[in-house]
Specification:
The chain is α/β, with parallel strands linked by helices. It contains ten helices and seven strands. The mean pLDDT is about 95. The structure holds BIS(adenosine)-5'-pentaphosphate (AP5).
Length: about 210
């Protein structure tokens, strides 16, 4: 597989962003992430799309899904410019999975399995470097450089109440997507509860074996 076309699935906090960064470095593919794209356009006016709220921000700050029409357009545009990719945060419901099937074929869907209490702990302790986009954790992966530590920020939706809502939205909408790819024979599960390097070793091997 010269330029793999991959999905990375998993609940909020499962480590999709962390492992996608490794995949991009190793396999030289594009990282297509709806979460980052939406965060960069949180105040975009979507009122013409006949949506409940007028901006992505209002959905995201509540932990709800942004309407499909907005997200489908982002992914369609990004995939049209990528040969190989790791798609992170999409599809999040069966309607989006159907849209994706119209846009491209996939080589593999990777699922990172992590228990709920560990997810809450990871998300409430996550911190981001606004200058580099690097992902840290206050306990599991703090930066060594105190200058970096000082500038770290927390994502608006990483407070415990919003995290619990995101997990319940995931269970209701995205678990059926995981079952869909399992039925299609595209799904490979990885134990996401191991240390980041151990998860990466398994992810890398799974992608290489799918080649
Ligand atoms: P999005 O940005 O996609 O967030 P998410 O799916 O909730 O996932 P996260 O980014 O929170 O977690 P992650 O799995 O990437 O974990 P990470 O690697 O950072 O979406 C945000 C919002 O945008 C949604 O709620 C929705 O509103 C909207 N949206 C996005 N896509 C959409 C779509 N398709 N349709 C509609 N709406 C959409 O790791 C988490 C933490 O754990 C970090 O601190 C990390 O250092 C640590 N960590 C990672 N791996 C390990 C490990 N193995 N051991 C210990 N710690 C670890």
């Amino acid at each position: 597989m010269a330029q793999p076309r991959l999905l990375i699935l998993g609940a909020p906090g499962a480590g999709k962003g962390t492992q996608s960064a490794n995949i991009v470095d190793e396999f030289d593919v594009e990282h297509v992430t709806t979460g980052d794209a939406l965060r960069a356009n949180k105040d975009m006016d979507i009122s013409e799309m006949d949506t409940e709220y007028d901006t992505p921000r209002e959905y995201m700050d509540k932990g709800e899904l942004v309407p499909d029409a907005v997200v489908n357009a982002i992914v369609d545009e990004a995939l049209s410019q990528a040969d190989g990719f790791v798609l992170d945060g999409y599809p999040r419901n069966l309607e989006q999975a159907e849209e994706l099937a119209e846009m491209t074929e996939l080589d593999l869907a990777l699922m990172l399995d992590v228990s709920e209490e560990e997810l809450v702990h990871r998300l409430t302790g996550r911190r981001l470097d606004p200058e580099t986009g690097e992902i840290y954790h206050v306990e599991y992966n703090p930066p060594e450089d105190p200058e970096i530590e000082e500038r770290l920020v927390q994502r608006d939706d990483d407070d415990e109440e919003t995290v619990r809502e995101r997990l319940s939205v995931y269970e209701e909408n995205t678990e059926p997507v995981v079952e869909h790819y399992e039925t299609e024979g595209l799904l490979e599960r990885v134990d996401g509860e191991q240390a980041p390097d151990e998860v990466w070793a398994e992810v890398k091997e799974t992608i290489e074996n799918a080649a």
